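Quiz preparation item.
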């Protein structure tokens, strides 16, 4: 690695909730630079979540995101011709990024009418510790647990 790492740019908090996490989520949700569309989808999803759960939509979203956030992951490492899956801790920034990506990917795969409804469904499911994104986190944790014997190869 010759060049220095890129600096983290400061994120402006979103105008409605005044939260940087929401801005980050909207940026991940965005397709083709259409930020207004992505933010409308997110705000609609939060309203749907608030109606379904009769709680604060943003709190349910944060709880769901926390439930989907992984703690460990497996990384491939070649040791003497064999490839091992080695469990390793994830840095905090990447944890949140992975959780957001999973929420978005699995909400896109849901069978509901609009993207806002799909996203709302996945957020509600994640807050109840169910749904595809939560299952993905569980699978990652199970893989890390199964490969715990190789953790001494950590790099």
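Solution:
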């Amino acid at each position: 690695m010759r060049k220095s790492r890129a600096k983290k740019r400061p994120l402006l908090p979103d105008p409605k909730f005044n939260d940087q996490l929401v801005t980050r989520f909207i940026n991940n949700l965005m397709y083709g630079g259409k930020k207004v569309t992505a933010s409308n989808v997110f705000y609609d999803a939060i309203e749907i979540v608030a109606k379904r759960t009769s709680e604060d939509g943003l709190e349910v979203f944060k709880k769901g995101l926390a439930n989907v956030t992984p703690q460990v992951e497996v990384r491939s490492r070649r040791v003497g011709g064999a490839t091992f899956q080695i469990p390793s801790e994830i840095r905090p920034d990447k944890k949140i990024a992975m959780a957001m990506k999973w929420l978005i990917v699995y909400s896109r795969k849901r069978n509901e009418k609009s993207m806002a409804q799909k996203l709302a469904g996945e957020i509600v499911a994640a807050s109840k510790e169910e749904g595809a994104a939560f299952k993905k986190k569980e699978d990652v944790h199970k893989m890390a647990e199964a490969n715990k014997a190789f953790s001494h190869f950590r790099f």
